[in-house]
């Protein structure tokens, strides 16, 4: 069964350092999402791509976060510099089309900033 | 601001009983409402959705009810099993722009054997 792949699974970084997460969506899925999930809360949408274009990044802290999906396939989310408050689970999800309500999530990257 | 929220943070049920998880929403413009299940250490998994012009939809062992008058959504799980233990999120999918999915805070379901 096709899955959304994310790496790394866990990341510990010091504050003020740069960190990057990678996501490979299910083949053929045009829509890709990055969510941040703080412990005990629901996922919060950071950025949504349709192919290689950003559809929604209204909740992305653009002073320190960046996301790209250059060829419309895999994607990278970067934080520079990391802050203590960035500690969270970063989830990637994909769907066949933006109109689809069913998104398939990866297992996430657990980030701890120390 | 607009939000999707849940009535109870935890729910404990006996194995074999039916479970009902409730959710309140505030945005009447949502096109779809969705339920996701998240097991420990995993990403959320889609369970079922319901379009805003419907009031009931059934899946395998699950039923979602939508009451637009009081802006309330519920997920009913029949014959709850230990494997149903997880956090359940209701979410709304807004069709403007990129069909953004907004998640609520979640309800943790414990199934007692």
Structural class of chain A: mainly beta
Approximate shape of chain B: globular
The percentage of residues in β strands of chain A lies in over 45%
Element order, helices and strands of chain A?
A: EEEEEEEEEEE
Distance between the termini of chain A: 36 Å
Counting H and I runs of at least 4 residues, what is the number of helices of chain B?
0
Helix content of chain A: under 10%
Q: Structural class of the secondary structure composition of chain B?
A: mainly beta
- Oligomeric grouping of the chains: heterodimer
Principal-axis shape of chain A equals globular
Radius of gyration of CA atoms of chain A, rounded to a whole number: 13 Å
* Most extensive interface, chain pair and sizes: A-B, 27 and 24 residues
Q: What does the largest sheet of chain B look like?
A: 6 strands, mixed
Question: How many β-strand runs of chain B?
Answer: 11
* Mean pLDDT value of chain A: 94
Q: Give the C-alpha Rg of chain B.
A: 14 Å
The share of residues in extended strands of chain B comes to over 45%
Task: Walk me through the structure.
The complex is a heterodimer of chains A (114) and B (113). Chain A is mainly β. Helices cover 0% and strands 48% of the residues of chain A. Chain A has strands at 5-7, 10-13, 19-24, 31-37, 44-50, 53-56, 65-68, 75-79, 88-95, 104-105, 109-113. In chain A, strands 2, 4, 5, 6, 9, 10 and 11 form a seven-stranded mixed β-sheet that branches. In chain A, strands 1-3-8-7 form a four-stranded antiparallel β-sheet, with no helix packed on it. The radius of gyration of chain A is 13 Å and the shape is globular. The mean pLDDT of chain A is 94. Helices cover 0% and strands 56% of the residues of chain B. The mean pLDDT of chain B is 88. The A-B interface holds A 4, 31, 33, 35, 40-45, 48, 50, 55-56, 91, 93, 98-108 and B 4, 32, 34, 41-46, 49, 89, 91, 93, 95, 97-106.
